[in-house]
Every structure is written in C-alpha cells, then in structure tokens.
Amino acid sequence: QVLLVESGGGSVQAGGSLSLSCVASGMISSPSCMAWFRQTPGKEREWVANFYSGDNSTYYDASVKGRFTITQDNAKNTLYLQMNSLKPEDTGMYYCATGASWSFCRSRHYHSSWGQGTQVTVSS
After folding, report:
1. Is there a contact between 102 and 52 (Cβ–Cβ < 8 Å)?
2. CA dihedral in degrees (108, 111, 112, 115; nearest 10)?
3. Mean pLDDT, to the nearest integer, of 43-59?
C-alpha cells in the first residue's frame, strides 16, 4: 500500500502559477507510473499528466500541455506539478495517483493508491 499526500493548492487569478506536490510513502514499486488527475463537482475525474520512472517520460493532456510541467524527485519520493498560465477552467480538486501500469496510467480506473486531493481555484 502506498500513501500519497498532496499539497500546494490555493487560489490564484488567471495567468498565475501554482506548484503542487505529492509525497509518497510505503511500498513504492519501481519503475512506477504516477499521475495527476483533477475533478470538478458533477464531472468525472480526468487525467492531467503522468510521469513514468522507467524512462522518465512525461505525458500531458492537450488542455495543459505547454503550461503544466510534471516532475519527480526519486530521492524525496515526491511528484510535482508546476502549473503556469492558469485558466479558470483549471479549477478543481487535484489528486495524485499511482499503482497502474504504464499502459493504463491515464485511466482513473487502474490506480490503486490516491491522495486526499488539494484544491486549486483560478478566478478570472
């Protein structure tokens, strides 16, 4: 079992930046795929980005590509999401997740471990 704890959310105006962190502890597999998802009320949880430690590859949803950067510090067991040029539509609860294989890392159905979430609010 892996415990994930997110932090770094907050409220910013459009065009601003936030940096999210997700600290992992427990039985962390290697290589592993870790992902960020977000969810707004009434909508399904959607994939934002993921990092695969096998080859340090990164993947982004088209809506955030070029604005968000996902990184991982293996020494600190921490996943980051740097969010720049934020838009009101980026508002939501952001969750980190792990447990799925690389092939299914973008799917919310296959991750076995989830954090409690951190709220991001972007005002226009």
Report:
1. yes
2. -70
3. 96
pLDDT tens digits, residue range 26-46? 988 888 999 999 999 999 999
With cut-offs at 50, 70 and 90, classify the pLDDT of residue 1: confident
Written as six digits, the tokens of 56 are 């340090």
- Quote helix, strand, coil % in the chain, to nearest 5: 5, 50, 40
Give the pLDDT mean for 82-108: 96
Per-residue tokens: 20 = 């999210």
**In this structure, what token pair is assigned to residue 44?**
């399904």
Q: What is the CA radius of gyration of the chain?
A: 13
CA 72 to chain centre: 11
Burial of 36 (0-12, 13-18, 19+ CB in 10 A): buried
